[in-house]
Amino acid sequence: MPDTRFAAIAEKVRAHEPLSRADGVYLFKQAPFHEVGKLANELRTEKNGRRAYYVFKRYLNTTNVCYAECKFCSFAAFEKDPRSYRWTAEQIIDKACAEPNDYDELHIVGGHDPKQTSLEFWLPVIAALHERIPHVQLALFTAAEIDYMCKRARCSYEEGLTQFRDAGVTSLNGGGAEILVKRVRDLVCPRKASAQEWLEVHRVAHSIGMKTNCTMLYGHVETLDERVEHLALLRELQAQTGGFKCFVPLAFHPEENELHEYGWTGGVDDLRTIAVSRLMLDNIDHIKAYWISYGIKMAQLGLNFGADDIDGPVDNQQRIYRDAGSKTDQSTPLSDLKRAIEEAGFEPTRRNLLYRVLEPA
Fold this sequence. Notes:
This protein is of the alpha/beta class. It is built from 15 helices and eleven strands. The protein has helices spanning 4-14, 21-29, 33-48, 89-97, 119-132, 143-153, 157-167, 182-188, 195-207, 224-241, 267-280, 291-294, 296-302, 320-323, 334-343, and strands at residues 51-54, 57-61, 105-109, 137-140, 169-172, 211-218, 244-251, 286-287, 315-317, 347-351, 357-359.
């Protein structure tokens, strides 16, 4: 018997009508798995054809000292912990500029480190990076880090973000969103920026001309209804500002953190989450299947379930997923990424941070 509810949702998608929260919950809980994937792939193809994007990036985690105490985090450490580290300004600049430096994007994430995470520390570092590697676009800081720095500096988000933009920051990273629902944040990250603060940082960034990414960390304490609420809030902000360039669903990794009892996400959940994200976020152009999170083979499948970007660091010192037990390689040659895209049936398309096509021209 035909699924009339799914048929009605498919009709809305094809008519470019936004899906309701109830539609999203149905897609997660009841809709046929393969049909959800097919519909997401249809929308993905309409938006991006057979292109699958990748980026040549360098990924730096400049400190793991953090006092936010997020329950899902395996990376953070207090300053006196033997695992802790903090790079100096000179070390950051040297690592960012080290040869070969023909990469396109520098992605930096740290922690809530009172000795590093400040406007005073970062503004001269950014100016130096912008001068020494002007061809590299800078994707620096999450909204949670911006919130932390602006509160410490006692300045508004607009004042802090404007200083970063003028120093050379191209885009904010999408992290720190986790799940944008108070119940969840009270459980897993009560000391970090609230959902409203996270959204406001991005709203202000968009208002001063900065494009940003957005994410969702799923597979821990949240319900499927709360995943949908998260997606709906992102879509509503995008409808107001148009400033999100990409959404990145991030699978929770359980090792060495306080939420280990929730275990690993499954492949069906990962693929359904990618697909539902594509369908709910119809006004965000790009969805990433982040291969560091999923592994390269699952990321290939994700390209057929609504994702159009494989992303992932290819010249990096990324530690966040490694510390949480990731079994995937933490870097990979560009040639391997391109081959993975081709094997999945798509056209490898090298891009920059703002999705301008670099190869093929």
